[in-house]
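Researcher:
Attend to token order:
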Amino acid sequence: MAPATVELYRRFASMEARGSSPLYEELALGVADDRDLLGLLSGLPAAKRQPNLLFAAARHVSGTPDGYRAFREAVLDHRDAVVATMLSRRTQTNEPARCAALYPLLASLPQPLALLEAGASAGLCLLPDRYGYDYDGTLAGAVDSPLRVRCQVEGEPPLPGPGAVTVAWRAGIDLNPLDVTDPDDVRWLRTLVWPEHHERLRRLDAAIELARQDPPRVVRGDLNARLGEVAAQAPPSATLVVFHTAVLYYVPEAGRATFVDRVRRLDGHWISQEDAEVLPDVAARLGRRPPADTLTYTVALDGRPVAFSAIHGGHLRWLNDGHDLGEAP
């Protein structure tokens, strides 16, 4: 167990935190060499040993530390509270900026839409029509929205104009839905934002305020157990779109295969925004690995890769047929 956890934290430091969060990079490297904290993690289920979860739980209990020593002391001094938070909470980062990668695809489908998000957290990504978007100066979405997501674009995506997406119905599924009207749930959502990411926190706060005006419906349950039931509630006059962002990594491999099979059987469309490796068919059609930079996720429509996107949004690299896409073997 220990070598796998050490590698998990070192990889997080080098592949995710470096260049994005100096504090989290320092904390991850520190944990990787700390026998006491590795011992604490060894007592948790494998799914609960994630760096993001440990760091957010420690900050939720004791505030943001100024370095590794303060972090270590806080975790060990409040061990029971930190562990209890890690066991009861999940890394449900709800990043509205990821909608910038979804919006061009949503706009390309017959309107109006019925949106169903798997792993919806508080449902903030269920509101793409309520946000404005700035694609390197091209405005789209709700241009008068208090939340405008700025997105750097590469390639030639089919950028829509203002108001191109109309949503007739929306719902989400999550194992542990978060409530935008619950102060403790909101505090957890805010704690999941990395310490140096002030713009992300501003976006989150703006999205929460918009969601509170008309909270999206998020039902509790396993995505495979409830997918068909919830999808059947969508109005037949709307185009059903099942989508998810950075969710299937947390689903066991067999569960991913079941989900893909079930979503393909629905009468609608499927948009995924995930690490390509969690969807073998998408990875095969991609024909190559995503770039080794911040563009970690592969965006796919009905299993066909169309773009790379950044983990926290804000950067979209469109793939052009016949040029960037490889053929499935």
In short: Residues 322-329 have pLDDT under 50 and may be disordered.
